[in-house]
Alpha,alpha-phosphotrehalase
Amino acid sequence: MSFDKKSVVYQIYPKSYKDTTGNGIGDLQGIKEKLPYLSELGIDVIWLNPFYPSPQRDNGYDISDYTAVNPLFGTMADFEDLVTTAKSYGIELMLDMVLNHCSTEHEWFKKALAGDAYYQDFFILRDKPTDWLSKFGGNAWAPFGDTGKYYLHLFDVTQADLNWRNPHVREELFKVVNFWRDKGVKHFRFDVVNLIGKDEVLVDCPVNDGKPAYTDRPITHDYLRMLNEATFGQDSDSMTVGEMSSTTIDNCVNYSNPERHELSMVFNFHHLKVDYDNGQKWTLKAYDFDSLKNLFHTWGEAMSDNDGWNALFWNNHDQPRALNRFVDVKNFRNEGATMLAASIHLSRGTPYVYMGEEIGMLDPDFTSMDDYVDIESINAYRELRDSGKTDEEAFAIIKAKSRDNSRTPMQWDDSTYAGFSTAKPWLALGASHKDINVASEMSGKIFPFYQKLIALRKNYPIIAEGDYKAAYQESHQIYAFERQLDEQKLLVFNNFSAEKVELDLPEVYTNGQVLVSNYTTPKITQKLTLTPYQTLAILIENA
Ligand code: TEU
């Protein structure tokens, strides 16, 4: 048996979902309170971003204790209660495992720093740094106390990379996963897991900030097999997803092909870099539709042909809202949000919904750097200023690209703090909460459409299981693909433009039925016109 391909995952950033204690920070009890809402949406699994003890330099991705609950979010009893209550709604949890690095406040690092050789071998220490850059700015190595050595930190200086070559490290990390399995958790998301395998000899790499020297190293596949065998592989229906930073298709096929016993599926980010100028995040550029479409096609087909499996997503806690990036939201918010949803929910892979996406939440309209909390954004602003940009130029870039765009509190209603909290939230609310909130959107256009898509995946095996083939590849406006399962075929059109698009339907589809449309259902004829941001999916039973 393997994981359930009909499942849809909903991602919650615990800090921003629902505060029940009145301290402006979301908590586990708050998530429990919203289970009826999630059940109504129809999702199967909740992925929770880290809620473990942490100095919160990187909002919980800097873990100081892997097997406890940060009092900010509640207690272990709250967590156990959440698991049990979720189960009564048919919902299971997916936990975030940050096993590439730990906080420098973790006792392993503290003992290492105090001179304990056993724990020093938990980290990646060298006499001389390489030229690799940290993903949060600056060199990726920092002095290890006054030993004259340096430790590797691919992320913040307080996130020390763990030495997976050391079997004791692997053993400790496998224990962590099993600790949570013992609490009834079967599903896991592994943070930047394609970076865990470092070579024995680390060398300078002037290309791409050093990424090729530590990304997708062959030994990573071995570590994943060990992890699988020692932990989640023992639960036949466990669902695991690896976050793959700057990865390749070949590696992702291998990470997710069931015969290799590594992971169930992968996140890759290539489609979310199509608005990067020259591959650089901290730039402003309109997105390139052809690149987006080609990436979806190349990945969709390669994974389908080679039995790999993609996690499908537009949003997460590291990305500005997709609606602001890919849609003319002023004029077509409803149409764009539903089209984006259909373009992944009808595709091959497991769809992920990031909190607020199902009500069409937008980036906040922050007006000053004081509104930002994210360490990456703050560092980037400083670097942009240092590189000669004016305040205004630097701010405009942060505003478009900051990770805080998606981390603002969930908008439940139009009250002062959007029904998120009774106190001022830890991160400012989006100004849009007066109009865009759960209370009003549940009877709007977007939420019901998500409900429909999630239900369709359960009722139509072709959506959950069918093959994927590119269609209308030459179009500069439409992203179209064809799914096939036995005699059935499903053709899905997604108009990414704010213009009407005319197209010719293949003969065989003229007898098809409309399975999904985000506008009133059109009559199927050989000549079709798609309206702006229209999604149209046509099913034929006997191809
Ligand atoms: O992110 C990994 C990662 O490389 C990015 O998504 C990164 O945040 C982005 O490229 C910056 O531009 C994961 C987590 O999702 C992220 O929140 C953590 O900060 C990071 O790992 C470190 O644990």
The two ends are 29 Å apart (CA to CA).
